[in-house]
Amino acid sequence: MLTFGTDGVRGEFGKELTENYAANLAEVAAQVLQCNLVVIGRDTRESGVLLETAITKALATMGVEVQLMGVAPTPAIAFAARKHGVVAIAITASHNLYQDNGIKIFGAGGCKLSDAEQESIEQAMLARGENAKAADDMVSSSAKSGVARPELLQEYCDWLVGLVRPGALKNLHVALDCANGAFSHVAPEVFSKLGATVTTINATPDGRNINLQCGATHPEPLSEVVKSVGAHFGVAFDGDGDRLIAVDGNAQIVDGDHLLAISALDMKHRGTLRNNKVVVTVMTNIGFHQAMKNAGIEVVTTPVGDRSVLLALDDESLSLGGEQSGHIIYRDLATTGDGLLAAVSLAALIVESKKSLSEIANGAMTSFPQVLINLRVGKRVDGVDQLFKGEIAAAEKTLGASGRVLVRASGTEPMVRVMVEAPQQDIAEKVAATLAEAITARLG
Q1: What is the tens place of the pLDDT at every residue in 361-380?
Q2: What pLDDT is stored for residue 261 in this prediction?
Q3: How far is the C-alpha of 146 from the C-alpha of 138, rounded, in Å?
Q4: What are the structural domains, with CATH classification, of the chain?
Q5: Would you call 308 a catalytic residue per the annotation?
Q6: What are phi and psi of 420, to 5 degrees?
């Protein structure tokens, strides 16, 4: 049975994630969260409609009212949950390819579920076991379908546009890579309404091309477009829109660490960086930590996942956090990573500063060379850092105090991730390759 990872449940549609599983999960979640209304949105993958239908029918059978946003980015779904105080479900596998899908659940108020809530749902699912009904059996002939609520998505768009003064971006040319995902129509609309000149790529979803060699995990095509059209900068979203990677006017990639550093320094200058702290994960580059130390900003480090970042933000009443992968959380404005909110904020900062993104990013921090190797394994592995304790210790001895090693299991896929940072690229590559070879030899 699927269990909650770092960001909801996720798996291959039809095998790990079935319509029956989705229906049962929705029913159990509704019981645990004691809700009578649920908002549902989905990204553009072809299995989304089937999962939406199964979930809607299961909830309707329970007497739970269902409101459908249709294709909508995850941050818009969280926004609806926050604005209207309702539980919401996002049907998405984020940056994965179309074969996978997933389910993210937001509690009333727009925050992802707590550990206790997730555990209660998992225990209830386990208790059902083989007694769980098939999706079709759960649906009575009188079960109502969901009610279409496209205005919920429009509320999100209007809110974003309202954050910046009218026409603020009129002299800005922005290139957008929408990953053939949920921002395909939303992001160009928002930037156009703010007055920007917009060049859009990968905004024609067909159900199977989401994240396919495009978007935040593959920003190289966007770099080429920024260069060819002479855009001031570009932004690549992932399929569900909760993260972004930027490209400056020189076609150089600006990752989440740089974007977070830019925001932290700007917010400190404005006096909005609450408690003078910023939250990051263990993947954050050493260079970020050095930049924040130099700026007098304290860094709080969490496990991977924007859910972990959000928990730390709320625990310490902080206003900014994020991940190298491009999740940026402006806690005073949102309850989850929001790629478009971060993109609009970045555009406004560029205009106000009268500097290029290249100047701003290079001034914010300098990254240490970092090598990341993703190793596919037979099944998800727990305690991988302990399994390879000796190999990791040897790698750390090689690097000394000037480098860093992180070996961890993916929270959503059967994969082990090896990350090495060092002052020189060749050293990082050599150490990472040695670790990867050892892991592959034992885990295959």
Answers
A1: 999 999 999 899 999 887 77
A2: 98
A3: 16
A4: 9-153 (3.40.120.10), 155-251 (3.40.120.10), 254-338 (3.40.120.10), 370-443 (3.30.310.50)
A5: no
A6: -130, 135
